[in-house]
Each structure stands twice: as structure tokens, then as C-alpha cells.
Design a protein that fits this description.
- The strands form two sheets. This protein has a 17-stranded antiparallel beta sheet that branches.
- It is globular.
- Helices cover about 10% and strands about 55% of the residues.
- The chain has five helices and 19 strands.
């Protein structure tokens, strides 16, 4: 960094060494400005701490503390901690905690294929009040590894993983809403707990803005009293993400394919999720099915695919920070059903374009403008969609 070079150019050798130690620790407080249909304009703050050896492309410790509040009184607070190779076995430990208080939680029905304009969904008919707290922890251990030339990025790993996730959900809904009509218990508290496990292959050159390699995982999960949950249910997830430079790291084709199948007495929230090692809302929202209202299509059987062409404009310094702006066209396709039916039904297409900036090699801020048959959506969020 420019500031680091200026400092170490005149510091005595002993102090310069201390400055080099400081460089391993990065802390970036970032104002959060987020725009998403339903929640509305959201502001807050995100503090990200990273410990990374100077020669590494992967973070040893990554801690995110995020607090957001929207103009529609939606609160989301997250603590996410990832620790890598602390015991020198190339292991990864993820610990997460999330708090949600959402008085305008969107519910338009399960696998509702009716044509609904995005503007019409912002209506009390499709609202409920959701309160959730959700801890999650998993441990990833090495099964095999593949060393590669330095220009190809760090060592690729095949890992097994096991984890536990639990949530306390409380819903309230006014009479006459879609939620009150559909749900057998429109008001009440439920607990959902699952044990999950699987395998993952990670060959990305970094985990904040990959330019080559892939991140794939396959997992199964079972919920019930043994995981401190109220109901018996299960899920299977397969997620594949691939990143390929097209002649240059400044031109990257990013693609993902996801599939999830759930069975049993599935709680409401997982019906609108893709799981695995990376949980995402969908279909509809900031990551999957952009162009549709958040959690627009939910059900037990889901599949989705996304393609982005990420075009880097360059790299420049501003004080002690570096910035890499870029643009990207993208397209999303998704399929959602709740009961077995012919595969062609329930296909939902959306697409658009966006801009993004990679900040100091460990934070991405993006703005997407997406369109679908149900309208246009502007999204502002942190991190790539995948």
C-alpha cells in the first residue's frame, strides 16, 4: 500500500519490521447502504477484521460484525467468524450468529406461480412479522489437497465438513393476510435445528473476489429433536461455482449452479433458502433470482443458475486503500416447485447489469439493476452474489 511504503521508507529497521507485522492485520469499518425490495433503504455499519500473512491470498482470520436497520424497521445483525489453518492442519472453522427482526417479512404463498408485479407485493396482504435468532457452526477438515504453480493460486483442497445450525422463529400475522390464510399456526414460536455434513472442493485463488478456480459442495442435513428442533425434516443440497479468466484476470466468467431438495415437515424459512456451506435466500432477492421480489418463489424443490461476466476497469490507490472498479452483465435462471411436477414448469428468468468495486483486496461492494417479467429491481449490497 502507498501509506505502508511511505512509512517503511523512513522508519528505522526495527520499527519498519513492526510496521510489517501490522500489515498482516487489516480492519475496515464500512458504512452499509443497502437497497432491497420489501426491506427498503437500509443503513448501518460493517466492521471487517482480517488477519492474512503478507504472501498469502487467503485470510487466516476473517471477522465480520454487521448491523443494519431499514426505513421499514427491518433489523439484521450478524457476527461471522472464519478461522483457517490455526492448528496448521489447513482446517476451516466457521461460527455465525444472526438476529432478524422483520415486521414486513414477505410471504406470497408456497410455489405461487401467479404473475405478481414487484410493486404490488409491497402490500400488507403479503406481510408477516418475523423474529429469528440463528447460531451456526461448522468444522471443515482436509481429505485431500492439490498443490499448484504460484500463478494458479493457493493449494486446492477437498474437505469434509460437519456442522449444526439452530433457529428460533416467531411469526405473527394479521387476519386476512396471505400468511394467516396459508399457515396452520399464523402466530407462534418454532425451533428448527439440523445437523449437516458433506464434502467441498475449493480451488479459488481467493475468497473475496475469485478470478479462477471453483468452490463446490454437496451436503445432506437432518432436522429433529436430536438437533433441538420441533419437526422432522431433511434437505439435500449441491452447489457448484466456477470462475474462469478469459485471457486476463480483468475479464472473468463467473458461473454457479445450485439445487436443493427438501422432505418431511419442512419449516417455512428453509423453503426460501439454498443451503450447503453458503446459505442464500431465494428465489428472489439480492443473490439468486435478482429481478424478483425477495423470497418470491419458495418450495421444497429448487434449482438455480447464474452467469456473470466481470470486467475490471483497473486498479488505483486512494490514501492507504486500493480500489478495483468493475462492471458486469448477468443472467439468473431458477426453478421452484413444492410438489412433484413436470420439470419445465416453474422456470423464472431475470437478468441485468451491475457495477462493483473491490476495496483493499477483501471487501466487495456492488450495485445491480435487474429486470424480470414481474418488474425492475435495484439492489445495493456487499460481496458478490456468488
Amino acid at each position: 500500500m502507498v501509506l505502508h511504503a511511505l512509512l517503511t521508507s523512513w522508519l528505522p529497521p526495527a520499527l519498519a519490521s513492526e510496521a510489517e507485522v501490522v500489515r498482516r492485520h487489516r480492519f475496515l469499518p464500512v458504512p452499509v447502504i443497502k437497497v432491497e425490495p420489501g426491506a427498503g433503504f437500509t443503513t448501518g455499519v460493517r466492521g471487517r477484521y482480517v488477519y492474512r500473512e503478507p504472501e498469502d491470498r487467503l485470510n487466516r482470520i476473517n471477522l465480520d460484525v454487521v448491523s443494519r436497520v431499514s426505513v421499514r424497521r427491518v433489523q439484521q445483525h450478524d457476527i461471522r467468524l472464519r478461522m483457517r489453518d490455526l492448528w496448521h492442519r489447513d482446517e476451516v472453522v466457521d461460527v455465525n450468529f444472526r438476529f432478524d427482526d422483520d415486521p414486513v417479512f414477505t410471504y406470497v404463498g408456497i410455489a405461487n406461480e401467479d404473475r405478481l408485479d414487484n410493486a404490488a407485493i409491497v402490500d400488507e396482504t403479503f406481510e408477516a412479522h418475523r423474529f429469528s435468532i440463528s447460531p451456526d457452526v461448522n468444522v471443515q477438515f482436509v481429505l485431500a489437497r492439490k498443490a499448484r504453480p504460484a500463478e494458479m493460486g493457493p493449494t486446492a483442497f477437498l474437505r469434509g465438513f460437519v456442522g449444526w445450525t439452530w433457529s428460533l422463529d416467531r411469526f405473527t400475522a394479521e387476519p386476512g393476510t396471505q400468511f394467516a390464510q396459508d399457515q396452520p399456526q399464523p402466530t407462534g414460536t418454532t425451533k428448527r435445528g439440523t445437523w449437516y455434513g458433506g464434502v467441498a472442493w475449493d480451488s479459488r485463488d481467493n475468497d473475496w473476489h475469485p478470478t479462477r478456480g471453483g468452490f463446490h459442495d454437496v451436503s445432506v442435513a437432518a432436522g429433529g429433536p436430536w438437533a433441538l428442533g420441533d419437526t422432522y425434516w431433511s434437505r439435500f443440497n449441491a452447489s457448484f461455482r466456477h470462475y474462469a479468466p478469459l485471457g486476463s484476470k480483468r475479464l472473468v466468467l463467473a458461473q454457479q449452479v445450485l439445487a436443493e431438495f427438501q422432505g418431511g415437515n419442512v419449516p417455512l424459512i428453509p423453503l426460501g433458502e439454498f443451503s450447503g456451506l453458503v446459505f442464500r435466500d431465494g428465489v428472489g432477492g439480492v443473490d439468486i433470482g435478482r429481478g424478483f421480489f425477495r423470497r418470491r418463489f419458495i418450495g421444497r424443490r429448487k434449482a438455480a443458475g447464474s452467469t456473470e461476466l466481470r470486467i475490471q476497469a483497473g486498479r488505483f490507490n486512494l490514501g492507504p486503500f486500493t480500489f478495483e472498479p468493475g462492471i458486469k452483465p448477468f443472467i439468473d435462471a431458477a426453478w421452484v416447485q413444492d410438489t412433484p411436477a413436470p420439470l419445465p414448469s416453474g422456470l423464472h428468468l431475470s437478468g441485468g447489469a451491475g457495477i462493483y468495486v473491490v476495496w483493499d483486496d477483501f471487501e466487495v461492494i456492488r450495485a445491480d439493476l435487474a429486470v424480470s417479467p414481474e418488474g425492475m429491481v435495484f439492489l445495493l449490497a456487499a460481496d458478490h452474489a456468488f
